[in-house]
Each structure stands twice: as C-alpha cells, then as structure tokens.
Amino acid sequence: MVFSWRGGPGAPRLLLSLLLLAVGEPGSCQVHYSVPEEAKHGTFVGRIAQDLGLELAELVPRLFRVASKGHRDLLEVNLQNGILFVNSRIDREELCGRSADCSIHLEVIVDRPLQVFHVEVEVKDINDNPPVFREEEQKVLISESAPLDSHFPLEGASDADMGVNSLLTYRLGLNEYFTLKIITKNDKSILPELVLRKSLDREETPELNILLTSQDGGKPELTGSVQIKISILDVNDNAPEFDKPGYKVVLFENVPNGTRVIQLNASDPDEGVNREISYGIRLILPVSEKCMFSINPETGEIRIYGKLDFEENNEYEIQVNAIDKGIPSMAGHCTVLVEVLDLNDNTPEVMITSLSLPVREDAQVGTVIALISVSDRDSGANGQVTCSLTPHVPFTLVSTFKNYYSLVLDSALDRE
C-alpha cells in the first residue's frame, strides 16, 4: 500500500511505501479481561482507564477513544468513570464460530501525546445452545432378515457451544428391538448407532417409532430430540457394501469447478435388479453456499460443484448411500472426508487507524506519526506478514502488538 500526502504550495511531499513480506513480529497485550457471552447491557468488564494508568480527568481532553475492527459497538467505555462495559449482545458462536479461543481486541488511543494501548477481552462460552438435530424425523430402512447385532448409523445432533457445553450424550426411548451404541470417530466426535437385539418380522411389526434424545454437558443440561422412524422391509437380503466405510481426499482450494473428488465403488452379492446400485449423497457437512458436491448415480463418481475456499471451510464430510434396485431396496453407507489445503490466495491488507498530519519540521525524534495494522486472511505461513518502509526516509516502524505498528520519526526533519 502506498500513502501520499501533499500540502499547500511549496510544501514538501511525503511518500511512504509499505512492503508486505512473509513473517510477523509478536507484540504484547497490555491489559486482559474476560466476559461471558450474552452478558446484559451495562455489565462491568474492567476499570480500563485505571488499569492503563490514565487519570479520569484526562480522558476527554486527550480524546480517549477505543477502536475495535469489526466489533465496534460490542463494548464501550464510560468516560466519566473509566469503566469498560458491555454495550450490546455478544454471541460467542457468531463472533468466533467453532474456534476454541475467542477474544475481542481493543485498540485504545489517546492524544497529547499520542499513545496506543492494546486490550484483549476474552469471551467465555456459556451453555446457551441446546443440541439440535438437522431434521425432526429420521427415516431408517431395515430388512426383516437383518441378523442380530446389525448396526444402523443415525445422524447425530450438533451443538454450537464449545468445550464441555458441546459434549453430547444420547439415550434411546424404551423398545424391545434396539439398543444404542455410541461410535467415537477419529476427530473425537461421536455418532449414535442402532444395534438390533431382537429379530424383526415385517408381517408382525411393519414400522417402529423410537425417540432419540441428545443431552449436552453444560450446567444446566440442555436437550434435543428426534423421532426415529424405522420401516421394516421385506427380503432383498443383501445390502450394497463399499470397499471401505470411510475415505479421505486432500484437495487444494480454488481447484476448477467440476474437479473429480473420488470414484466410489460398492458391490452387492445379489443377482438381477437386486444387485444394480444407485449412488446418492445423503448429507454434506458443513453446509456451504459456495461449494457443493455432486455424485453420478450410475458410476459413484463425486465432483465439485462450486468453489473450494479454505477460508470458508477447511474440511467437508460427505455421507454417501449406495441403494440397490431390489424391491424393497437396501442401502450401504460410507463417508468421504475432503480436506482442503490452503493456497496463498489473499493479499495482505493495510489499515491506517490514526494519522497525525502535517508533520512539523521541528517535531522531536520519536514522535508517533501514524498507527498502522496489517492482516492476511490466509493461514499458517501464508497468513504471516511483516511491514517495512522504503529506504532513506526519516521514519521507522515500531511493532506494538502482533501485526500492529507505529510510524515514528527516526531523525530530524529539515523542510528547507
């Protein structure tokens, strides 16, 4: 980014170039507070003026102000008593999504002389979200010839909270046919499964309705439930089976629309139409408006429909069904995990949050001219930036906090 200032006739022209490279210097946070999400308006957060060593009487004369990128109205400071308080509703899930750490960074600025302080306010999670099932009813098709101890995967609930508040347990309503088993996946998430404990007879019981309830680990506990509708099917006695229950594919973001993800294959030992298979996608998580996946129902080939964007989602789970054409049909299941790798596809951004112009030629060395922040939406090394000036200018950059800098006068100015 290039910043240029031109004064009146005869005034010198100042031209600064900010070059963005690949490594940043860490800063330090001067004050740290915490506040629970959903705290009421006016909730006390901290005595920010006192903790920053500022006198109450100087807040107004020194133009005390607080800047917070993207979260301007969540927190405010009472200039009469120097107290930082909650100004509007703070929703941790809306603010930080599924991130384990969630904080609001405040940049406190005062003039005469110009000073900047950095304050971080950690947003604590509360148990304000119950477990939620995607649909009110889940349909399960089970053959009457299914052997005892057969397993039937169910769609689990999700909880927008974090930590213990999002740890889910499940219980199954009373019935004589099924028990519940919990499967722990590699990513530590859990999914419920039905396990058949008593043989089925379609002529005796053509349909079962069982309530599945999920409970989170918060205090107090919150619950959600879904109705499991089980249809007992007449014998087409072999379900399609995939080569493996799960597959993993790694793709770079921004691959062309229509790129092939994977070729799936399921087989059915039955004969005739009972072994003919149609493939379909049962569920894609997380839901994305930018990127979808499509499957060829005849071949099982999955392709991208849309755009893979690492900054939106770095992982997708595709649940696939293979259904034979018998009467009644039977289904096999597998999961395809798509991992998205980051590319350096976002340019760094520079923001000047405060600027003191014009600069007097008798300004003292060390005078702060501007406050600058740089950021990059990429992750890892692609998202690390540094800030530097063009050579041979009477200024220097001083790192104040992570990717925040002060532009400071480095040597005496001579207008003539």
Automatic annotation (TrEMBL):
Domain annotation Cadherin: ranges: 34-133, 134-242, 243-350
GO molecular function: calcium ion binding
GO terms under biological process: homophilic cell adhesion via plasma membrane adhesion molecules
UniProt-listed InterPro entries: Cadherin-like_dom (IPR002126), Cadherin-like_sf (IPR015919), Cadherin_CS (IPR020894), Cadherin_N (IPR013164), Protocadherin/Cadherin-CA (IPR050174)
Species classification: Eukaryota, Metazoa, Chordata, Craniata, Vertebrata
Cellular localisation: Cell membrane
Stretch forming the signal peptide: 1-29
Species name: Enhydra lutris kenyoni
Protein's membrane topology: Single-pass type I membrane protein
Keyword Calcium found: yes
Signal as UniProt keyword: yes
Database matches in Gene3D superfamilies: Cadherins
GO cellular component: plasma membrane
Domain of life according to the entry: Eukaryota
Protein name: Protocadherin alpha-12-like
Keywords, in A-Z order: Calcium, Cell adhesion, Cell membrane, Glycoprotein, Membrane, Repeat, Signal, Transmembrane, Transmembrane helix
Any coiled-coil regions, as ranges: none
